[in-house]
Design brief:
This protein is an alpha+beta fold. It has eleven helices and twelve strands. The chain has one domain. The protein is globular, with a radius of gyration of 21 Å. The protein binds iron/sulfur cluster (2 copies). The site of one iron/sulfur cluster has 13 residues, from α10.
């Protein structure tokens, strides 16, 4: 026996959460037939369509583009530094793609590694993630190549699976998911639909081994000629998590902030001396692939990629990681 919920009932839940002062996020329609994860101000903004592939990732609700970590000011000659408190509001993220939510347990590792990032951790503790199982994969999807699937549970507190335009099956995986949907569903013998899993495009173990043994492979020289170093692939990636810490303000007072950064631009590794250890785009592309498919698995036992395809779908050069991984896999055989 499954549990089902109507679209109307889901909108009522969202309405109540917003009225209670909770942060509620989900896919919202944008100009140009695009969809972005945004904070909702009313339930009608939420687009719960499993064929929609939002441009950005839900990581923004856990690791925002810009966050103040402390404030400083001078009183006379004395420097006063005060910590900023982490964002503490309860938040609910609806309609995340399973491959997007699957990034969260992967990111948990790095944000609780040598340094406990309480800003990220507090948002994780206070958030409930409700995924929407995919109904169709496009040519850029490769979740199955990294061990995931269109109904992967990783990172989700609950999952919605579309039965028809007005009805969803509800599956809950955690106490947070149970609490949200307690007394909101009705029993049914209907079950939701998921997309046929996309074909496996490469063997990630082969790729990892090949990367370990071929650091200077020419594949990066050839493919990086197309890359314009815009960084879009990293900003839209659910698992990319580089940031820079800078002081914004004046000499007398200001904020120390954490801003997203990207390994795809030359300034990322430029030393004060003028030396740049990743002096060209080939080295920067290599770093991205090495980090995701060799270094992170070696350190944490997890691939730093969920196969969402965002990096290819929105790359103006149609690059992203998948074409490179397919080439590396071919070369490894
Ligand atoms: S791979 Fe594509 S999205 Fe990424 S930096 Fe290069 S051009 Fe931009
Ligand atoms: S590297 Fe590309 S496919 Fe992998 S998680 Fe990031 S955006 Fe998605």
């Amino acid at each position: 026996m499954s549990r089902i919920i109507t679209h109307e009932k889901l909108k009522q839940i969202v309405d109540t959460l917003i009225a209670d002062g909770k942060i509620v996020a989900g896919p919202v329609a944008a100009p140009g037939s695009r969809f972005f994860f945004r904070t909702l101000t009313k339930p009608d903004q939420l687009v719960l369509d499993p064929s929609v592939m939002p441009t950005n990732s839900v990581k923004e609700f856990f690791f925002p583009q810009h966050e103040t970590i402390c404030k400083y000011r001078y009183e006379g000659k004395e420097l006063i530094v005060s910590d900023s408190e982490p964002f503490a509001a309860d938040q609910f993220v609806f309609g995340a793609r399973p491959c997007d939510a699957a990034s969260l347990p992967i990111l948990d590792k790095v944000f609780a590694w040598d340094y406990q990032d309480r800003f990220y951790q507090k948002r994780r503790e206070n958030s409930t993630v409700i995924t929407l199982a995919c109904r169709q994969a496009d040519e850029n999807c490769f979740c199955t190549s990294v061990g995931l699937a269109p109904d992967t549970q990783a990172g989700a507190d609950a999952m919605l699976l579309q039965i028809d335009a007005e009805t969803f099956e509800v599956r809950t995986f955690t106490d947070k998911g149970n609490t949200l949907f307690d007394h909101q569903t009705t029993p049914s013998d209907k079950t939701g639909q998921t997309a046929a899993p996309p074909d496996v495009r490469f063997d990630s173990k082969n790729v990892e081994k090949y990367l370990t043994e071929h650091f200077n492979d020419s594949v990066f020289d050839e493919t990086s000629m197309r890359c314009v170093s815009c960084g879009a692939c990293t900003y839209l990636c659910p698992t990319c998590h580089c940031f820079d810490i800078v002081d914004e303000g004046g000499a007398a007072k200001g904020n120390r902030v954490k801003n997203w950064d990207t390994c795809q631009v030359s300034l990322f590794t430029l030393h004060a001396s003028g030396h740049n250890p990743r002096a060209n785009q080939s080295a920067r592309q290599r770093n991205r692939i090495q980090h995701k498919f060799c270094i992170y698995p070696g350190k944490f036992g997890l691939i730093l990629c969920t196969g969402c395809g965002n990096c290819t779908r929105d790359c103006s050069a149609s690059l992203g990681v998948r074409p490179l991984l397919e080439l590396l896999d071919k070369k490894s055989r």
